[in-house]
Amino acid sequence: MLRPIGTGLLVLMLVLSADQLSKFWILYGLDLPARGSVAVLPFLNFTMVWNHAVTFGMFGGFGGAGRIVFSVIAMVVACCLLVWMARTPSKLTAACVGAVTGGAIGNVIDRVRYGAVVDFLHAHAFGWSWYVFNVADSAIVCAVCVLLLQNFLSDGQQQTS
């Protein structure tokens, strides 16, 4: 049976692998940069976006320095998250922290490798359109939501499972 740190590291590697493999396929298998956008379902497109900023395009005014600044900040945060993961007795918390860390590292790899984050998932329906995002972003948002729900339901008491 895995200890919480093992669970967290496993989830980190799964998220990081899924993120990087999906981006590799989008860039080199589907060749989305040349195609621009491909309809997948009536409510989902693969749409190529090179995100030079952070979530939802925030802080895009950093220019070329943004690549370095955002990468350094993300890696510092990832290190802090690894400490949290190592200290928590909760497998659920460790898994969520692992998902956030894996997603953060996946986006850092993009910034270092391509100079921007590869975003390609574009959800839309009934005239509504969400920002274009990727697997790493999805893992981060879902894990944070679970952490918030876990904290809300436990009334701040530490859970061990």
TrEMBL record:
Keyword hit for Transmembrane: yes
Compartment annotation: Cell membrane
Keyword tags: Aspartyl protease, Cell membrane, Hydrolase, Membrane, Protease, Transmembrane, Transmembrane helix
One GO BP annotation of this record: proteolysis
Reactions mediated catalytically: Release of signal peptides from bacterial membrane prolipoproteins. Hydrolyzes -Xaa-Yaa-Zaa-|-(S,diacylglyceryl)Cys-, in which Xaa is hydrophobic (preferably Leu), and Yaa (Ala or Ser) and Zaa (Gly or Ala) have small, neutral side chains
Transmembrane annotation, as ranges: 36-56, 68-86, 130-153
EC number: 3.4.23.36
EC main group: hydrolase
This protein's pathway: Protein modification; lipoprotein biosynthesis (signal peptide cleavage)
GO CC terms: plasma membrane
A Pfam family assignment: Peptidase_A8
InterPro entries: Peptidase_A8
Residues of the active site: 119, 137
Source organism superkingdom: Bacteria
PANTHER family in the record: LIPOPROTEIN SIGNAL PEPTIDASE
Family stated for the protein in its record: Belongs to the peptidase A8 family.
Protein name as it appears in the record: Lipoprotein signal peptidase
Annotated source species: Acetobacter syzygii
The gene coding this protein: lspA
